[in-house]
UniProtKB/TrEMBL annotation:
Enzyme Commission code(s) on record: 4.2.1.24
Gene Ontology MF term list: porphobilinogen synthase activity; zinc ion binding
Active-site residues from the entry: 209, 263
Known pathway: Porphyrin-containing compound metabolism; protoporphyrin-IX biosynthesis; coproporphyrinogen-III from 5-aminolevulinate: step 1/4
Name recorded for this polypeptide: Delta-aminolevulinic acid dehydratase
Family annotation (NCBIfam families): PRK09283.1
Organism: Martelella mediterranea DSM 17316
Catalytic activity as recorded in UniProt: 2 5-aminolevulinate = porphobilinogen + 2 H2O + H(+)
Family to which this protein belongs: Belongs to the ALAD family.
Subunit architecture: Homooctamer.
Length: 340
């Protein structure tokens, strides 16, 4: 029998007196039980570097992002360092006349990417520098490897990128992040770096780089969009394949990768989670150019609250098990977090 003043509601009986909204009712309780947080320590800032001096060139497909000459990039790096961003990832847009079928300019110790690394280490010594050894910014055909006929040849490409990795380490790169998805590249790069005395240079593997439609603005940023012949499906992972992606990541782990990356990010949160659960290594998502552009352009049209969606998507990577995110929003987010 119920008491005369019993205020038990039907909802209490249905839920067994368990009400999820109790801990949501106030801002302080929501903060107290929040499971994931985004901090400046989670951010890696991808940047585009171009030849010349005192140049900052907006990229139309990526509102708010510019290609920068080495001197301007060095100044931007000081700002990133001051905001507490841990690392910067560099991508070059070299002169078209320096691009050839084999991407030979990547082997030049004084090429654009290596000059940028030296300038960054001088300007912002505590900022980590992450470099890519994929050939697409250096080839005349826009592919990530050496093209022979209609085939991207695996082993010759691996030889090429191993030499490039050593040159990038000599320039001061802290982490090599190979994105070209050739078989055996992680183990080969690790061996070559160690032989050259760079045991402390890490490898962040693009462990699961999918054959995605989200890369378009990036290809505009490095001027490969009009060069690309065919597609990259013969070496990137099919967007339908999750189990294959885990097998790819497992091989990179066996070959000595220190960190694993999932690219793109938001469409592959399931892969982030599965890789973190399977291997326990640090996992990073790359919120790629297309993801960034969609948010920026939708916000410009008034369709979404751009700042809110920016933070929500970045937090989703943390919830999916990521230790950090490569994002073009890095500076904007770091500034917002500094005010909060």
């Amino acid at each position: 029998m119920s008491e005369p003043n019993d205020k038990t509601h039907l909802v209490d009986r249905i839920t067994g007196h368990r009400r999820m909204r109790r801990i949501r009712k106030a801002e302080w309780t929501r903060r107290l039980v929040r499971e994931n947080r985004l901090t400046v320590d989670d951010l890696i800032w991808p940047v585009f570097v171009i030849p010349g001096d005192n140049i900052e060139e907006p990229i139309p497909a990526m509102p708010g992002v510019s290609r920068m000459s080495v001197d301007r990039l060095a100044e931007a790096a000081k700002k990133a360092e001051g905001l507490g961003i841990p690392a910067i990832a560099t991508f070059p847009n070299i002169e078209l006349e320096k691009r050839d079928m084999s991407g030979s300019e990547i082997l030049n110790p004084d090429n654009l990417i290596n000059r940028a690394t030296r300038a960054l280490k001088k300007a912002a010594p505590s900022l980590g520098v992450i470099t890519d050894v994929a050939l697409d910014p250096f080839t005349s055909h826009g592919h990530d490897g050496i093209l022979t006929g209609d085939e991207i040849v695996n082993d010759a490409t691996v030889d090429h990128i191993c030499e490039a990795a050593v040159a990038q380490a000599e320039a001061g790169a802290d982490i090599i992040a190979p994105s070209e998805m050739m078989d055996g590249r992680i183990g080969a790069i690790r061996e070559r770096l160690d032989m050259a005395g760079f045991q402390d240079v890490g490898i962040m593997s693009y462990a699961t780089k999918f054959s995605s439609g989200f890369y378009g603005p990036y290809r505009e940023a490095i001027s490969t969009k009009g060069l690309l012949k065919g597609d990259k499906a013969s070496y990137y992972i099919d967007t339908a394949n999750g189990t294959e992606a885990l097998r790819d990541a497992a091989l990179d782990v066996e070959e000595g990768a220190d960190m694993l990356m999932v690219k793109p990010g938001l469409p592959y949160l399931d892969i982030c989670w599965r890789i973190k659960e399977a291997f326990g290594l640090p996992v990073f998502a790359y919120q790629v150019s297309g993801e960034y552009a969609m948010i920026k352009m939708a916000a410009e049209r008034g369709a979404i609250d751009g700042e809110r969606v920016m933070m929500e998507t970045l937090l989703s990577f943390k919830r999916a098990g990521c230790d950090g995110i490569l994002t073009y929003f890095a500076i904007e987010v770091a500034q917002k977090l500094a005010k909060s």
